[in-house]
Amino acid sequence: MPPRYDTLFYDGRCPLCAKEIRTLRKLQRGDLIFADIHEQNAHNAQLPTREELLKRLHLMTWSGEWVIGLPANVRAWSHTPFGWLLKPLLWPVLYPLAKRVYETWADRRFEKKYACSVGPS
Asked: Which GO biological process annotations does it have (predicted)?
């Protein structure tokens, strides 16, 4: 069976995102591809808009399915030996609160024009 690679789209201008990506790159098993949103072709019809990609974390699975937000983060970390630590965030009892925390942070970041970004957006 051929390898199955997921692709994680991230904000390469965000110091916090860059730090997490460096950690994921070190820990992952080689089956996660990293794509900086700012290096993507703006006219690629297969991708969400740049604005959508910056609003929420996006991961495209090996089968072409999009996973967005908190589930994308959990799936990205599932490519590391520590992924099991985040899986409980998707449990029905924890998910509503975890999703609200993630979305509040993401919305605040986006509304403040990527407050954690460096350089021009």
From this structure: cell division
